[in-house]
Amino acid sequence: MSLPDDLLAWYDRHARALPWRVPPDARQSGVAPDPYRVWLSEVMLQQTTVAAVRDYFRRFTERWPTVEALAAADDADVMAEWAGLGYYARARNLLKCARVVTAQHGGRFPDTREGLLTLPGVGPYTAAAIASIAFDRPETVVDGNVERVMARLHDVHTPLPAAKAELTALAAALTPQERAGDYAQAVMDLGATICTPRSPACGICPWREPCRARAERTQAELPKKALKKSKPVRQGIAYVGRRADGAWLLETRPPEGLLGGMLAWPTTAWAEGAPEPAPPAEADWQDLGAEARHTFTHFHLQLAIRVADLPHSAVPTRGEFLPHDRFRPAALPTLMRKVHDLARATFRPD
DNA sequence: GAGCCGTGGTG
DNA sequence: TCACCAAGGCT
């Protein structure tokens, strides 16, 4: 038995049951995955855990069962449905991609890695994942799991990201011509359930015998990674205003950059040091005395909160009033939902 | 190559 | 409390 065969045999017994996955037995009986569902799941899973993705995947596929349905959706509806999942450029690219596939490819996803790479939001990993999982092409997927598994299997001590090319070559050398889709998912399942970042379960690993790191007892320290930079602290002020009729003053953030395209409370700029106030409407803004703390990828944020009852005649300089019955806190990104949770108690119950 | 871009779980 | 981490892509 070869290494890939050993892994596939393990996968046949231990594959995780996932909503977007065709299990190995069904697959070998000729059931083909739906490329739309494979693509959607892979985009959602970028830097995101399976546990976080499950409910989002279910809601998206119920609401938009096909790529054509998604392509026809309103941008704001898609952004609201994505709210809380993070990395919102993914949602913007998701729509772009659905519209390209619908308008330029007749609603069918390209079935090669090269074709898939031309799509918005589809990079080297996702293109290989869709090509292998949806179309059974022998492409090599290299995600964080595969990097970790290869670094341990071959005892590679070069730190990431410099080691990326080396680990990719090692992974490619193992990729089988047959059952490419199952193999791709098998390596990732191995990384997610056995060859985990901390406390890997080497004793029950199908690759425990050939694993070089296990032999050298270096598995816990691999893969090596470059030191991370510390995060600076930025500060700002969020303005939560409500009109007497219950409408909230909200804005849609600019399409690019942090939380781009998302519904949000108007805020000052976020910078190191005390923020310059920038209220979105003339009113008696009161400091809430509590702040929302949130950590983004590259900085910590401390967001002070100011609240105001706005007169019906108020003309905001930014944002617009969203009627009470059309406002869903779930449509806010998490930071803005935290702000709402802190501020809501200060207003009369609706 | 490196910075930007979210969030929730975990030790 | 806090740093680390997860099926990356774009610029």
Automatic annotation (TrEMBL):
Q: Does the keyword 4Fe-4S apply?
A: yes
Q: What is this protein called?
A: Adenine DNA glycosylase
The enzyme class is: hydrolase
What GO biological process, any one, is recorded here? base-excision repair
Q: Which reaction does it catalyse?
A: Hydrolyzes free adenine bases from 7,8-dihydro-8-oxoguanine:adenine mismatched double-stranded DNA, leaving an apurinic site
A GO molecular function held by the record: 8-oxo-7,8-dihydroguanine DNA N-glycosylase activity
Pfam families, A to Z: EndIII_4Fe-2S, HHH, HhH-GPD, NUDIX_4
Q: Which domain of life is it from?
A: Bacteria
Give the protein family: Belongs to the Nth/MutY family.
This entry's comment on the bound cofactor is:
Binds 1 [4Fe-4S] cluster.
Xref: PROSITE patterns: ENDONUCLEASE_III_1, ENDONUCLEASE_III_2
The protein's required cofactor(s) are namely: [4Fe-4S] cluster
InterPro entries listed in its UniProt record: A/G_AdeGlyc_MutY, DNA_glycosylase, Endonuclease-III-like_CS2, Endonuclease3_FeS-loop_motif, Endouclease-III_FeS-bd_BS, HhH-GPD_domain, HhH_base_excis_C, HhH_motif
PANTHER family, alphabetically?
ADENINE DNA GLYCOSYLASE (PTHR42944)
- NCBIfam families named in the record: mutY
- The HhH-GPD domain extends over 44-193
EC numbers, comma separated: 3.2.2.31
- Enumerate the UniProt keywords alphabetically: 4Fe-4S, DNA damage, DNA repair, Glycosidase, Hydrolase, Iron, Iron-sulfur, Metal-binding
Q: Does the keyword Lipid metabolism apply?
A: no
Q: What does this protein do?
A: Adenine glycosylase active on G-A mispairs. MutY also corrects error-prone DNA synthesis past GO lesions which are due to the oxidatively damaged form of guanine: 7,8-dihydro-8-oxoguanine (8-oxo-dGTP).
